[in-house]
Amino acid sequence: MKYLKFFLLLILGAGAGLQARTEYRSKIAINQEPAVDLPYATLATHNVGKISMTVTNMGILGNGSLQLVDPYTGERAVSLSYPQGYGLNYLDNASLWVGAMSGSDTLVSSATGMAWDDIHEFWPDKYPEGKIIYRSNKDPEAPEYDSSISNQDYIAVYFDTLTDAAYTGFDYYTGQPHRPLGIKITQSSYAWGYDYAEDFIIFDYAIANVGEYDLDNAYIGLYFDLDAGKEDTDNGDDDICGFKKAAASKYLPDLIDTINIVWGADNNGDPNAGGNLQGLRSPSSVIGLRVLRTPGDGAEFSFNWWTTSWIATRDWGPRKYSAGQQDVRRFHGVLGTPYGDNDKYYMMAQREFDYDQVTTGFDHSGSGWLPPPDYASDISSGEEIRYLISCGPFDFRRGDILPFTVAVVGGQDFYAQERGTMGYSKWRDFGDLALNAVWADWVFDNPGVDTDGDGNFGKAKIKVYDSTWVDDEWVPTYADTVYYAGDGIPDFRGANPPPAPKFTVTPNVNEFQIGELELCWNGRLAETTPDQFSQRVDFEGYRVYIGISNRDDDFSLVSSYDIENYDRWEYHAGERIWIIQQDPFSILALQKLYGDDFEPLEYYDPDHMYRYFNPSTGKDVGYYFTRHDWNQSNYSDTTLIHKIYPEQPYPSTLNLDSARMFYPEELTDAGELKYFEYRFVFRDLLPSQQYFVGLTTFDHGYPARALGPQESSPSMNYIREYAQNSSTMVEELGLNVIVYPNPYRVDANYGDRFEGWDRPDLPKEYNRAIHFTNLPHKCTIRIFTLDGDLVREIDHDYPPGANGSMHEKWDLISRNTMMTVSGIYYYSVESAFGNQIGKIVIIR
Known about the structure:
Elements: H1 4-13, E1 18-22, E2 25-29, E3 43-46, E4 52-56, E5 60-61, E6 80-81, E7 88-89, E8 93-102, E9 105-110, E10 133-135, E11 152-159, H2 165-168, E12 183-191, E13 200-209, E14 215-225, E15 229-230, E16 239-248, E17 256-266, E18 286-293, E19 300-307, H3 340-349, H4 376-380, E20 385-396, E21 401-411, E22 415-416, E23 426-427, H5 431-444, E24 459-470, E25 473-485, E26 503-509, E27 515-522, H6 524-528, E28 539-547, E29 556-562, E30 565-572, E31 577-580, E32 585-586, H7 587-594, E33 610-614, E34 619-627, E35 642-643, H8 656-662, E36 677-685, E37 690-699, E38 718-722, H9 727-733, E39 738-740, E40 744-745, E41 770-773, E42 778-785, E43 790-797, E44 808-810, E45 823-831, E46 834-843
Parallel strand pairs: 40-46
Antiparallel strand pairs: 1-2, 3-4, 4-6, 5-8, 7-15, 8-9, 8-14, 10-11, 11-12, 12-13, 13-21, 14-20, 16-17, 17-18, 18-21, 19-20, 22-23, 24-25, 26-27, 27-36, 28-29, 28-37, 30-31, 30-32, 30-34, 33-34, 35-36, 37-38, 39-41, 41-44, 42-43, 42-45, 45-46
């Protein structure tokens, strides 16, 4: 019954406007506006990456204890699933804590209570001000694109100013009601679906003092109740947690990455009775919390964990003696769970940094800690664990806004088994978690980017790959500046593929009555725009796709174009592996380094290396080379993606205004640079079938940071078209209207191929269609019975030459919304280009 009241309030106050997930796509479900003037409590689900996680506008993350139903899907919202889709969970709930001194009062506002406390002290405004805002950078033409940061932004605003105990609850032990600090929270959460960023979600909090008083010695904390295991099982009593300060860099062998991440996991990955993990369906991952930004550089951190139990002696956490103290403070008789504002504030302000839970069995009293309890071995091997990470103190004056940014980070293969073997091949391996934690920091604060223009690009190392002896000193002939930290100014920006160019589609039916679709585009921006993350022009190529719907999974790759370049493999002695550390090399760059007659594919594996003596190191060096992608860069093969002007040299200038003035011969009639004009023709298409054709761009990745190629989505840059004669051709040649299928047989199962793919929610009767093609761009279609009664009138009105302007369909429904019966019907097509009459036969 603990959350019954809260659940009812949510149902009353949040019956509309919730962002939810279905089939890994973001949705916003609007049911109806609330009928009562209540705080508009809502939830949303991040689901574009590997982590699926519920957020709310009440300061709560996750859904374990709340058991709230997602009104869009009708199913219980996930808490924290990773990797999503495999029935795993790593969180009961997490909540924001803010504490401060207000006059003589010690106050803490928290989103949830502790254990059985019924406390919810953050609430949003009423509808519509309180609803969660959804944004996304996936579609530049969508309304949610404006001001977007990531593939999936959720912005929630809530306050601690509500004092009605029916909402906020009260302190279980003291009976005191909620006393507000007077703060407003703007919680922005960001998720990406790219491979380098799919394992974390960034939460950015702006905490504003909107009250009447200055607040002293403020602290900010995030409380996590771990529950690592399979969903819908009792999985919260065998968890472990700890703190990981640093890990070896994956990119610079002599660098140690500072990651400072709290981690939590299942104690053993839950093997089956035979001792084997169940692959991706075992809780073999680890979830971490990394603080990315605090309100000031001088903030001090605390990390506290504890076990919560109904038995007072087992409600325990590591505790340290304070200077001059003979004993430690207890929280209503226990050493673990902090109850009430005073205890919560004490824990945040004590600035204690606990040792890892798995070391509880060791005696840490020599470092000032209490001796371990009698059941320390039970705790070390896994328990019901909660933890808190907090920072402060801060002066928090009226009108101040404190920034606080964290990342929830996942790491796979914390536990792993090789197939067919007994025992673990990896046991509590932090490699993937550390890598993802680094990437979370890089997306938050981009290395090598001077965000505020003060000349600081962040921390970097110079890597020298080749050098030569010039004027009595070694001079690098090939070196690179590798940035490994940002400039301290947040960017919230990840690597994106090159911008996909807009394109045109010209339909046609050839002399053999076979459909064709011609795609044309100009790639100037795609090929010259620097990646906003690496600040390098990293264009690699184009791909064209075709499908019968606009879903990503329904697109098929037809042709690809990529520039000719090569990867250079180098031996990493420390890890004893061959790696790629540099961006791909063009053939010209390689010949400049190794000679005009250098052929990289002559050196194609470790047994066929290119060797030379590096005088700067006094060692022999060996490399081998492979194609980067397919090197499909034939400019003139018209069966593939090809250039319209294959002999056109690279432009004299990329500035169109300058080109119009000084180099007009390099421009097309449309005013674009000829060098970047491309064409591709889809051939052998059915004229009766509607197609979706997509154009994507991809880059060559960022090998220096193990970032694979990024490709745009065909579902974000597609055109829907029939492979039929264009309306322009119809009007110029005076072509006759064609109707198909004619006769129309109801029992012919056209829906298996042509009808209803885009509206499966409608009854089959509403997906039936008779098609008209060879239409002018504007006309009126009328269908009559043999007696001359008007059955249906269709206004066909498109801009001249627009996609789909040659085609229209009739759903076999009359103007009185009745289903038509079997028989012979007349149709007429009337336009400024002439009138035509014909017959339609319907057989039921």
